[in-house]
């Protein structure tokens, strides 16, 4: 994955440009959005005067209201949560001699110890700012290497002479296949073209240039083609808290077909895609986004335009039991294990970011 | 014998229709520490153990009572390990102080669950509820503050606890319809989600609840409806049954008021395996069934 930004500080100009992009809901890739968000927040945190963790948290909250305004990329919210967790963690570990990190997660164990957990983050701590910024730099490096690490495992997932199906276009999937082919694996890829934006065609172009045997099929052919596939490997927009997926529309069909033929479904998901939100398929309004239906039914198709309603949703919710494995940058996990990762990455108070921001 | 009477009296005082057996038992134990005349640690622990035994005998020993008592005894021994160098009196003060916090936490867990769980109830959804559960009631009350929804409650024979539940929901201005236990298959296509409480949450991630819960969960699975469980974390228990017969009989058969039913043949609870459950709403967060054993292992 090409890095558009380096770890260097954002200039005033860059920061403003980034903020404008976010507010006008310009489409950034989920990686780019996550990376820029952390960089932007790091800039804000190092530029402002603060001594207590509470002040830093308020600062982040104030900024995130602007960042989240027009964004449909969940990775922005995820990164804001990561940063808030960093501040909270550093608050407990810095200044004190005690290095054991306090477990911020609620647990039976904690119930047993009857700890007071009403933490206001109001005591000033020494070196808090430095350690927060250090941890944020670590987070940035983690983001930079995440795709590479996911792809490093490609040989374990792709065997010789396999037929692999994928849907649409994901930069990560493209890189994953290319890594495998560079290591001399021979395999064939069937790409579902993904109507109406035909992002599958872009992937097909990239893969054929890398000398991978590629077949493009229409969305309707998923079921017919599935019986001859060994594996399905896809990217996703986000991984939901219950282990389900929010992925581009058509993925649910693909997953059901894979289940029917007992074809394993592997999802490539770097950790910044993991979101602590539960949204279920029966709440489509909140979950989904619809885009211009121009491709489905062009505006110039005459009288019929007035008679029908056309909807073009962007996403599908895929329930966790249809996913076999998540290949992440910290290892492979089964969907029921997602809740553990969630507990490691985010503070439970920050799960519901919108509510938190309003309070 | 004097001690036994004392335990019974305190337990009676602490129990009530709105209080879970587990909480009542924990409160009783705390009260016994407070008023007791034990002078050493082992004396205290022996006394508490006897008290637990007495409480089990004089009630329809529920799983939540067993798990609540177990958790509390573990809590006591934790304090003992910590306060090795301190005198018994100091330990006792510490114990009471922390014990009160513990009870407070346990008490507030129902509200926490209500807050966490209510976000899963959407506007205009139709919810199937089985039997009477205080946590579920609290959750629905919380959700009704800003949402409209309809609840179907099973009548839940033989004690008809579902009818009580329906009454209470009505009192809180929630649209409710009481249905026959046998009508579960009929309503399943109309509802959006199933919400049940639990008497105990087991190490497998499955739950033990009022008889009929398993059938509802199976029907829900057949219709692809999510099954949510609302339960406090003190109900987590180390049991790991593989089938219905594995459930200890002492939990299965309670005293029945209805005489037409042979109580030796008709269990009042059943075990619902984890694969039929979608999520558990607990005071320690929203968990997948797999997470339960993780929590229990962390304790050990």
From TrEMBL, chain A:
Belongs to the eIF-2B alpha/beta/delta subunits family. It is found in: Cytoplasm, Cytosol. The keyword Lipid biosynthesis does not apply. One of its GO terms (cellular component) is cytosol. This is Translation initiation factor eIF2B subunit beta. InterPro entries: eIF2B_beta_subunit, IF-2B-related, IF_2B-like_C, NagB/RpiA_transferase-like. One of its GO terms (molecular function) is translation initiation factor activity. It comes from Bugula neritina.
TrEMBL record, chain B:
Its main location: cytoplasm. GO terms for molecular function: guanyl-nucleotide exchange factor activity; translation initiation factor activity. Transmembrane segments: none annotated. It is found in: Cytoplasm, Cytosol. SUPFAM superfamilies: NagB/RpiA/CoA transferase-like. GO terms for cellular component: cytosol; eukaryotic translation initiation factor 2B complex. Keywords: Cytoplasm, Initiation factor, Protein biosynthesis. InterPro entries: eIF2B_alpha/beta/delta, elF-2B_alpha_N, IF-2B-related, IF_2B-like_C, NagB/RpiA_transferase-like. Belongs to the eIF-2B alpha/beta/delta subunits family. Component of the translation initiation factor 2B (eIF2B) complex which is a heterodecamer of two sets of five different subunits: alpha, beta, gamma, delta and epsilon. Subunits alpha, beta and delta comprise a regulatory subcomplex and subunits epsilon and gamma comprise a catalytic subcomplex. Within the complex, the hexameric regulatory complex resides at the center, with the two heterodimeric catalytic subcomplexes bound on opposite sides. Acts as a component of the translation initiation factor 2B (eIF2B) complex, which catalyzes the exchange of GDP for GTP on eukaryotic initiation factor 2 (eIF2) gamma subunit. Its guanine nucleotide exchange factor activity is repressed when bound to eIF2 complex phosphorylated on the alpha subunit, thereby limiting the amount of methionyl-initiator methionine tRNA available to the ribosome and consequently global translation is repressed. This is Translation initiation factor eIF2B subunit alpha. It comes from Bugula neritina. The lineage of its organism: Eukaryota, Metazoa, Spiralia, Lophotrochozoa, Bryozoa.
């Amino acid at each position: 994955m090409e890095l558009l930004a380096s770890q260097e500080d954002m200039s005033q100009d860059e920061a403003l440009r980034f903020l404008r992009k976010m507010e006008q809901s310009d489409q950034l890739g989920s990686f780019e959005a996550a990376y820029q968000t952390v960089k932007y927040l790091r800039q804000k945190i190092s530029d402002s005067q603060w001594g207590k963790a509470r002040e830093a948290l308020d600062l982040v909250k104030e900024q995130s209201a602007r960042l989240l305004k027009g964004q449909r990329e969940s990775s922005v919210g995820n990164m804001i949560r990561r940063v808030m967790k960093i501040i909270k963690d550093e608050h407990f570990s810095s200044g004190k001699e005690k290095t054991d990190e306090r477990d911020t997660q609620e647990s039976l164990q904690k119930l047993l110890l009857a700890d007071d957990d009403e933490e206001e983050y109001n005591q000033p701590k020494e070196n808090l700012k430095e350690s927060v910024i250090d941890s944020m730099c670590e987070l940035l490096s983690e983001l930079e290497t995440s795709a590479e690490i996911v792809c490093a495992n490609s040989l374990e997932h792709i065997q010789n002479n396999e037929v692999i199906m994928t849907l649409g276009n994901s930069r990560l999937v493209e890189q994953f296949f290319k890594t495998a082919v560079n290591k001399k694996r021979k395999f064939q890829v069937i790409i579902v073209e993904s109507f109406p934006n035909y992002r599958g065609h872009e992937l097909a172009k990239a893969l054929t240039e890398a000398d991978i045997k590629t077949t493009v099929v229409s969305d309707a052919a998923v079921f017919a083609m599935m019986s001859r596939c060994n594996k399905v490997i896809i990217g996703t927009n986000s991984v939901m808290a219950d282990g389900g997926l929010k992925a581009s529309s058509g993925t649910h069909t693909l997953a059901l077909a894979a289940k029917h033929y007992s074809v394993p479904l592997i999802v490539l998901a770097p950790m910044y895609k993991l979101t602590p939100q539960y949204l279920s398929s029966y709440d489509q309004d909140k979950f989904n986004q619809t885009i211009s239906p121009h491709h489905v039914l062009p505006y110039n198709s005459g009288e019929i335009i007035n008679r029908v309603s056309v909807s073009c949703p962007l996403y599908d919710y895929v329930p966790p039991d249809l996913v076999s494995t998540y290949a992440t940058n910290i290892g492979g996990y089964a969907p029921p294990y997602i809740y553990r990762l969630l507990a490691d990455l985010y503070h439970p108070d920050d799960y519901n970011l919108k509510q938190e921001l309003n309070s | 014998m004097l001690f036994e009477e004392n335990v019974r009296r305190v337990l009676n005082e602490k129990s009530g229709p709105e209080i879970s057996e587990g909480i009542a038992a924990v409160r009783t134990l705390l009260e016994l520490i407070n008023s007791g005349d034990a002078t050493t640690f082992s004396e205290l622990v022996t006394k508490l153990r006897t008290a637990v035994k007495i409480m089990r005998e004089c009630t329809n020993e529920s799983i939540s009572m067993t798990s609540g008592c177990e958790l509390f005894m573990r809590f006591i021994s934790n304090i003992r390990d910590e306060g090795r160098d301190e005198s018994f009196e100091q330990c006792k003060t510490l114990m009471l102080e922390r014990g009160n916090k513990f009870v407070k936490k346990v008490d507030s867990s129902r509200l926490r669950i209500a807050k966490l769980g209510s976000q899963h109830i959407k506007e205009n959804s139709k919810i199937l509820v089985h039997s009477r559960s205080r946590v579920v009631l609290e959750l629905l009350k919380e959700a009704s503050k800003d949402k409209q929804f309809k609840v179907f409650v099973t009548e839940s024979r033989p004690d008809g606890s579902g009818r009580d539940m329906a009454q209470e929901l009505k009192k809180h201005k929630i649209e409710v319809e009481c249905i026959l236990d046998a009508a579960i298959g009929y309503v399943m296509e109309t509802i959006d989600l199933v919400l049940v409480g639990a008497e105990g949450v087991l190490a497998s991630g499955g739950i033990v609840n009022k008889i009929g819960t398993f059938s509802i969960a199976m029907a829900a699975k057949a219709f692809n409806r999510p099954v949510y469980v609302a339960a406090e974390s003190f109900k987590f228990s180390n049991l790991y049954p593989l089938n219905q017969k594995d459930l200890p009989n002492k939990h299965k058969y309670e005293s029945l008021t209805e005489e037409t039913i042979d109580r030796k043949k008709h269990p009042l609870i059943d075990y619902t395996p984890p694969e039929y459950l979608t999520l558990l709403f607990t005071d320690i967060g929203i968990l997948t069934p797999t997470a339960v054993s993780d929590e229990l292992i962390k304790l050990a």
